[in-house]
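Handout, section B. The chain below has 410 residues.
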Amino acid sequence: MTSRENMNRAFQKVKRNKGAAGVDAKDIEATRLHLKEQGQEIIRLIKEGKYKPHAVRRVDIPKPNGGIRKLGIPTVTDRVIQQAVVQVLTPIFEQKFSPYSYGFRPNKSAHQAIEQARQYIDEGYHYVVDMDLEKFFDKVQHDKLMSLIATTIEDKPTLKLIRRFLQAGIMENGVVTVNKEGTPQGGPLSPLLSNIILNELDKELEKRGHRFVRYADDCNIYVKSPKAGERVKKGITEFIEKKLKLKVNEEKSAVGKPDARIFLGVSFYWRNQRASVYVPKKTKQKFEEKLKKLTNRNWGIGLEYRIHKLNQIIQGWGNYFKIGDIKKYSQLIDAHIRRRLRACLWKEWKKSRTKYRNLKKQGISSNEAWRCANSRKGYWRNSNNPVLNTALSNQYWKEQGIKSLIHVIS
């Protein structure tokens, strides 16, 4: 774990991921210099089981549903050490993990999890037990987790290091509180530790012969009837709460048809004797809210930066949700984005003579350009004006570099 090659690889991985500084306020470059000076001493402390990580910096991230996700940001030094641990332990634990676990694993993806769920529905499992773990990352029992790790890893300094990362504490408003349970999200080690403890759930589900898909703490079990679903839900809830010492969120957990539940942002429907993926309205609304913010004409930024930020979200959202049937939706969104951008640009041009001059540049005749430039209609109504539509055509926006959602998903 502490070999030069492994540590260097860990540093490069953390550097690529960027991320904020921790409680020591050292960024990537400052950490590089620190490790250059103190690296050998840090490695000595790790080998002797004496290394003490810094407390993690608490950051609250708003959830789409209105809740708060609490992240714990370790220092960059601690992230490098955690990444070094992950690089060594991952190949060892990968051999033990279930093929139906898809979250935070090499060569596994959300798309694969969605496809596996779709296959279950195709096979006649038309009901889903949607299990939601309440504040999973905050509730993991340290002793339970360490006992599971110790069945595979015998190296005492490594076990000590992992426990110290779990108990590093959380700094909030300058005060450090001791971390008695949970694996704070934000460090490279947390996803692996969550998979280690939830692998116990996977083994239990396999032992009982259930069809399931798990992505991190999001677990769906597919059954053939509501009655079977309620029976499975009850049995698995007992296992999770008694054996794993975790809490099931009864309000969010339910048995239902797949088209009534959202799994990894998508739902399923039955068409032509086959299960198909669709993007539910709730997921689309979240996307549209982001687009609305980026195309707000009262946001005083340049067109180039606005397009840059739009392209990032269009590319990311399109690459993920192209698994669903969103061709028609993509065409509507593309047209809506262009109209909102026309309204932004129309406001940016401000004066009538600037509008007139820019319309002329785009090949609009003097009379039409003059009438359009002096229109008393609002920005939104003018954004649908045939003259402005012709001047700021699809080709115009293509030249400005705006990505098309329909092209991203094609």
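Note. The longest strand covers residues 56-62. Compare this with the example in section A.
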